[in-house]
Amino acid sequence: MMKRLTLALFLALPAPAVALEPSELLDDPELEARARVISAEVRCLVCRNESIDDSNASLAKDLRRVVRERVVAGDTNDEVKAYLVDRYGEYVLLKPMMTGTNVVLYAAGPAMLLLGLGVGLVYIRSRRGRDAASSAALSAEEETRLKEIMGD
Question: pTM of this prediction?
Fold first, then answer.
């Protein structure tokens, strides 16, 4: 019974879509492997957060063709990515480069969290100091005034 349930669940899960068509494959397996590695790191500009290797969009097909043309032309993986970045901007990469503005963007989140924690700590400590000062013993003048108010 458990085997049948497991098999049913396994068959119900969506299989990963491979959009690569047989006509797009390169004859040289080494070049094809390089092209697949590059394609897995390039974002489909239509599908947002999907690689061109997994996308069925026509733009993704065109980008796969461009990647294969550049690989066959003898470009290195970095040169192919640089070509695509020059043409489409850094957004085309699924994993952006850690340079310039990107470093600031990556560091901004944790920096703001630390800043918020610091402000919170300062606020809590200042409240503690005020509470301690307000709960201090009454002066003689305040004590006599309190007795008058209380009717003692």
Answer: 0.59
